[in-house]
Amino acid sequence: MGGRSKSQTVGYKYTLGAHLALCHGPIDAIREIRVDDRTAWSIGAGQSSSAGTGVGALASYGTVAGMSAAAAAAGDSVAEVTFPGTLAGIRLGANYDLKLGTDNTTRTVTVQAVSYDGGTGTTTWLVEPAATAFAAQSVTVSDAASLPNLSGGAAGGRIRINKPNLFGGESREGGIVGDIDVLMGGTTQGQNDYLAAQAGSNVPGYRGICSLVLRQVYLGLNPYLKPWAVRLTRILRAEDGNRQWYPEKAQIVPEVRIGDAAIYIAMDTSGSMSGSRMAAQRTAVSRLIAEIGANAMEPNDIQFVTWNSTVSSTIIRRNADAADYGELKDWVDALPTTVSGGTDFGAAVSQSGAFFNGAGGKRRILIFVTDGEPSPASSLESAKATLAGLSEVDVFAFNIALSDTSATGQIDNTPVDGVPVVPAGDPDVLVASLRAAFGEGPDMNPAHIIRECLTNRDWGLGHAFTDIGLSFATAADALFAEGFGLSLLWQQESTIEDFIADVLKHIDAYLYVDRRSGRWELKLIRADYDPETLPIFDDMTVVDWGELGRREAADLVNSVTVKFSDARTDQTGSVSVTDTALVQDLGQVVSATVDYPGIRYESLAVRVAERDLRALSSPILSGEITVTRVGADLDPGDVIRLVSPRRGLEGVAVRIVEIDHGDGRANGVRLRIAEDVFGLGDTALVGGESGDPGRLILPPKPLTRRWVTEAPYWLLVQELGHAQADALLDEDPDVGALVAAGERPSADALSVQVWTDSGAGYALEAGVEFVPTALLTADVTDDPAERVLPVGSWTGLTDVTIGTLAAIGDELVRIDGVSTTTLTVGRGCLDTVPQVHPAGTPVICWQLLANASEARFAAGETVAVRMLPETGLGTLPLSQAPEDQVTLASRAIRPLPPGDLRGNGVSVVNPNILNLGPVLLTWAHRDRLTQTSSVFDAYDAGDIGPEPGVTYALEIRWIDPGHRCGGRTAGGGNRCRQRHQLHAHEGGRADPLGADGNEAFRGAGAGAARRRQRDL
């Protein structure tokens, strides 16, 4: 009696419920969640954010007829949605948009429970908000474009991670799948339902703490918890979630660097934009495209659309290079500042669908800039409908001088930045806002950091806002203009005073209490003074010159390395600058390394390194002097001039480092001073190179020399062994595997990922190493005697190994000798025969590093393959990798083609040979089953085998390959005499054919004949 065998447990899936406290709250947003240094969720990938999901990336579940909703009864907290039948795919706790058929409005709900009444055939959802109500009608259900307005309003929202293959899938360590609640920590934050269900009704609301709640999240197949890391932003929310001071200058993004993105920018050119608004928009977008184009090796798709009542003009470039970016910038710069027309929101995004459809797998970003309300009003719904049909698009909306964001807020799906309102005519603020749509998120203005450290009552010094002087706004403006933002984590391992001192060190500034006002003041050390207007202190006002001195030459530093936190790699990067003249003077490099962990951008790190080098490489004057009460009004950071002919001081500019006003008994004011570096001459600086990874490591480039094919029987035997390979083919004679290899495209390339798609979408197959490659520099014939091949343009020449296999097109050759210009080979090895190869054909030396794929495919199946190289800056995006296709043809089971095929003793014969007389055809046997060692026989080798069961057949065809004019069976021997059999009326000439390099397969099913053919 038959039956199914008992299943075997090979592993376990692990899930976890947890509460992870992150930091003081509330915060602006969760930007990224990484598990074991892999991105599990990111706000910049069309995914739902901690502040709500977006218009893009919406799954539709269908249209339901007869759906209605009734608001919650008194005392209840949920509304009831009912409809006939059922709706598949709905999840508890998830957010859905209900688009009503009667008026096309949308209600957003969170489904808390689902029940089905089999008697009436009706489904009931319990949903929030409790006020949800509408009459029965047709309703279209889709993933939510925004979070519902829950009572309390402080909930950060729920995100879903769906990365089941993050750690290699079920064949390795699984992945991450599940819902996570983001608790921002607001002052009105209530209990989390999951925590309450697990820990009881007394669980607190955890106000003031930003945290994550894992709702039984699948964590993989490993019982050990992998490390979690969260990137978050807290800039615009101050203490207790209040609005940040001076918010328009709080966020700083100093530069834009983005690659593999499709960017659609809709620029408002309606009548209200005429003049300064249009000029500011044009300037800001021009600067933005110039910054993006500065890294032209990271190609993007770009489309600009100017719009008013309709689309007025547009330009598009795909995979833009440096020339394309120049053309885009010129196009923007040429836009007129006098414009007219309405503000049709639908027109603004009308071309976005076609643009993104042609973008492949690139990240999709839509920038929407306007200064007006939608006109006509219905154009807002038109725009929303267009965006709802897009897949995974991050939509960033910006208002120019329009405080009402209710309309643009329905288009924007990136609540991490809301809808910024920028002042009219200010391109600096607009370009800063636009930068925030790209990259790794904004940094915080250091003036804002210091101010909050001084005023925060929870973890700061608790000073009143009135204790902060006006200089903070001035410093904030200057730091914003410099693009000098910082991102720092204070973990209370040091005092708040030490933390403030670290910020001051980053920005080179003084913080002090003004003696006259009693307020805190912030002074930046900058070249912001006129030397001719500085106060002069001479022998009349200096009571005691003390001990002034200059730094000795032995103490000078001529090279500075700055370590910083690289936003692109999440690793410590470094840049170095050098004073070349001082190196020559000292005869050696004297270096210093300075850590600035709050800096995240290389360009800023270079500027800071130059600043520090100027100070450390100069023999500056320093010391302490005592002055009269004239100096009582000086503040730290002020600059004065010292004049004393007796001491050789001719108006030297010095900066006040510290002031001691005395003890009240003496009238002198002691000043600790240091010569101001901005009063010195220019320094000859070189460098600015990044030590890691910066400019020495480039973005990955596509492979141009690639080899992708079906794996031969020999390779299966090498990897599986004879017994397992034969057992595999006995079970399924038509099974096959792939093999892929390619060049190292750049010196910094580390390895290459092989991705395959057999019809269900691309999936990672394996990671492989790069192999040596070259190019043929001249045409090569199919004469097996042509063994010395001209080559050049080597990569990895020193890794070429004699006696191993290489691939030239579909021909495998044995490497017998190598130099920079020639490759000596044995032609037509294993199951291939000599072929014609044009100049420029790649030579792929694959044997030692290539492997057969783990995935198995069936004969006739076509598999697409893409190879993605990796560098220190990441992996080549799938959309940028060239695609190769392989159609499986039972390669492993077929016999090897005959070797050394000759006509009348020669390999290359007169094509008209059958018209001249009898032809003696000879060939050498081959044996697939025994030719599996690492010693390879070339095509012209003698008899091997033959493989049991192999027979040979001869066909004679006209020069037209489809016209057969004769044939015979040669049995299992290795020679056949053929006389010419042409009839007068046939004319022309015959073309003898044996087994051809195309390896034609004829027959299918059990017992089908498998043949290889070779042309003569």
Automatic annotation (TrEMBL):
Chain positions covered by the region annotation Disordered: 983-1016
Protein name: VWFA domain-containing protein
A Pfam family this chain is assigned to: Phage-tail_3
Domain VWFA as annotated: residue spans: 262-400
InterPro entries named in the record: J_dom, VWF_A, vWFA_dom_sf
